[in-house]
Amino acid sequence: MSRVDGLLILMVLIWGANYSVIKRAFQEIPAQSFNAVRIVLASGVFWVAIRSARRHALAAAAPRSTMFYTPNALTSRDRWDLLWLGLIGHCAYQFCFVGGVAITSVSNAALIIGATPVVVAILSAALGRERIRALHWIGAAISVSGIYFVVGRGASFGGATLTGDLLIMVSVGCWAAYTLGAGRLMARHSPLYVTGMTMAIGAVPYVLLALPAILRTDWSAARPITYLMLVLSALLALNVAYLIWYVAVKKIGPARTSVYSNVVPIVAMAFAALILGESLPREKLLGAAAVLGGVFLTRLGGRIPARDKSTQSS
């Protein structure tokens, strides 16, 4: 275990609890309206944090690169990368994920999202970003099988949930592209800057897409506790957890970071049991143990840098 693993565990707890939080909020605020306000709020917080980090760094006698600030100037290539990462990783991902969860079952969504680490690992190896050890593949396979025991037996693909299932699949592809696509940016700029700028860029088209839903929403009908959920979801699930994700990508690589997303359905299941009173049968507990064991194996294997360091993602 390292400090990065501790941060990733915090990220998993935040994202796992967020499922129950937004499910409750969706009862009073439509999904896309809720998410549009959430992403705008989180973008504003990131903007303030970026400005503060820059001001603090420039106040020092010799500004140096940190996880929150780098002195490198933006190039035209940097601006292009920020643009497409914002569109794919925040606008498209958030729109498909929230839209998919709203019209499919939680079991279906969790099972599909459980494939994210495998998608990231395959793409990372194919692009030469990381050389993946056999132990990582074994751990990923065990972890994905655990996801099936947790949620797969309740999944029923096709029919009424087909559109939602397809949207979740698209969101997995968007997240994989977002995770792997920022490699060059992360080598030149801080995780705070990359995450905050891409979120702000993605927020603009997202709000435009969600504008009809926003205008139809009766905002006065929501209780104060629902607005508190919205603020906490923005600050924790978007600001804190997204920043942890890219710090980990920079430190241990995208393939090993993404494996922790397999634990999110487990934590979501636990919070649903505590908050919503859902049952925890024995097969789900065994599946949770398999997921955690698979994550442990992937971290045991260590990381093999790619031979061509110019193509590394961290």
Describe this protein with a few key phrases.
314 residues, mainly alpha, two-stranded antiparallel ribbon, 13 helices, 1% strand, globular, disordered C terminus
Description of the molecule:
This protein is mostly helical and 314 residues long. The protein has one domain. It has a two-stranded antiparallel sheet with strand order 1-2. Helix 1 crosses helix 12 and helix 2 packs across helix 10. The radius of gyration is 19 Å and the shape is globular. The C terminus is likely disordered.
Question: Helices and strands in order, then pairings?
Answer:
Blueprint: H1 3-25, H2 31-59, H3 76-103, H4 106-113, H5 116-126, E1 130-131, H6 134-151, H7 162-181, H8 183-188, H9 191-216, H10 224-252, H11 254-259, H12 264-276, H13 282-300, E2 304-305
Antiparallel strand pairs: 1-2
Helix pairs in contact: 1-10, 1-12, 2-9, 2-10, 3-7, 3-9, 4-6, 4-7, 5-7, 6-13, 9-10
